[in-house]
Amino acid sequence: MTPIAFITGATSGIGLATAHRFSKEKFKLILCGRRQDRLKALQEELSAHTEVTTLSFDVRDKPAVQQAIESLPQDFQDISILINNAGNAHGLDFIQDGDTADWDAMIDINVKGLLYVSQPIIQTMIKNKNGHIINIGSTAGKEVYPKGNVYCASKHAVDAINQGMRMDLCEHGIRVGAINPGLVETEFSKVRFKGDDERADQVYKRFKALQPEDIADIICFTVTRPYHVNIADLVVMPTAQASSTMIKKS
Ligand code: NDP
Ligand code: 8X3
């Protein structure tokens, strides 16, 4: 049966590249994000390759998440792949200077939003005895870096949720795994630095960062393994990066 893939954060970066990659595999696509103009354009583009529907909601808004998933057309309801990708960092500050609104955003989006999206889809997967969940974590979920405090905490939470989901869903035959990238050149830093594009661009200067397509390739490899193979936890960094704080720049 054609896989039905639900991708959060499909309007940009890793999620967008994954949508493109999956369209080449002819997976049916449910593309999510808040920016409706981008979703509409993407649907138009990818519909040349496969069946696509879109859902616009904020992952923080629990009733909106529920409503959006319930609104799916009948032939998109049996979701078999969930890419929990929507997420971001807000600010890069010492803990004593952190903006509590930034803390709320990161915990609400990266942790609570991921849970809100996952639960109804997990119920469908259990019913169908078929499913694969990929949680996009980060190297920030494996180590902590100065001023990364709350973003790192949110990604450590994703790491714990990934392990917990795998344990709870094992008896239902559902695959669960995390992909944890290091630096990927996306809109991530533009969001983190609140539109300060010059500062954001500096993050990816003087070394070759991962590209969103690199992660999309890995996601695609992961979901196309035979069903008895579950890539449980994968860390991927640019060759020029050895840890969150050690990056070889020219
Ligand atoms: P982008 O900023 O390019 O993409 C983020 C995506 O998340 C967008 O599609 C955005 O869509 C969506 N999103 C953000 N907030 C919300 C929200 N409240 N509700 C619904 N959707 C939301 O960043 P990346 O592609 O880099 O980030 C994707 C994931 O990868 C994140 O979880 C990030 O933490 C993780 N990651 C990124 C790394 C990097 O270096 N770039 C490294 C490691 C992990 P919209 O604004 O339309 O809602
Ligand atoms: C994003 C990578 O190093 O900017 O998760 O935190 S990093």
UniProtKB/TrEMBL annotation:
The keyword Iron does not apply. PROSITE patterns: ADH_SHORT. The keyword Transport does not apply. Gene3D superfamilies: NAD(P)-binding Rossmann-like Domain. It comes from the Bacteria. Keywords: Oxidoreductase. InterPro entries: NAD(P)-bd_dom_sf (IPR036291), Sc_DH/Rdtase_CS (IPR020904), SDR_fam (IPR002347). It holds the Pfam family adh_short. GO terms for molecular function: oxidoreductase activity, acting on the CH-OH group of donors, NAD or NADP as acceptor. Belongs to the short-chain dehydrogenases/reductases (SDR) family. This is L-serine 3-dehydrogenase, putative. The lineage of its organism: Bacteria, Pseudomonadati, Bacteroidota, Flavobacteriia, Flavobacteriales.
